[in-house]
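Hi R.,

Here's the chain you asked about this morning:
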Amino acid sequence: MNLYKYHKNMKLEYFLLLYLVLLNQTSFAQKYFEGKVIFEKSYEPLDSRLTSQLLTEYYGNRTIGLVQEKRYLMYVPLNSKDTLKIYYFLETCDGYIDRPNSDTIDHFNIDETPGILTKYELVDAEKLILGDKCKAVSIEYKPKEDYIDKVSGIYYFNPKYKLNKKYYVNHGESFWNLFVAKSGSISVRNEITYYPLYKAIYQASKIIEQKIDNNLFKLNPKKYINRIPR
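And here is the predicted structure, written out as tokens:
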């Protein structure tokens, strides 16, 4: 027996087997979106007492989302100095609102729904967003607040920016679990009408896939956390 040829063939078979294993793992591996989404915001008043300028001053004209697989963070710049931060920790269903010029962080439960669902469907329409054709999910509900008759939202998505659906199953806040169940991905344009007050439009102007620093999800230790019991 030619031992040199035998060992050479064994070595070749080993690397071929290793390659097939790695190829199989890659085929079944799921890559979920991690990165930054920048939304430009605009408003259309429905109530004559409101103006787009007033709504912009109150809610801001931009929102920045930082997304990891199991959590995400929304930055809402209110002016050149002050920024509102909203944290979503999906595994524990805990949300936190860190307001500027406040010594308190408000806690909320992500798994609580905002009202009574009245409509939920995939919209038979497409919109071109950042060069891609995007479909949308329609969600409508009667909110708990008496001063709002209903909230009607059309949320566009791009399936190439995938989310891990299992972490959003209990995300009842804004009925976002339903959106992710249909889309399986992040939203890239939100058209939300708060009847009879105003319509808000969030349009993604830039989506950057990148690693997000874990330290950004650390709450300010100098602030008191006002927790809501379950």
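One quick note: The chain has a mean pLDDT of 89.

Cheers,
M.
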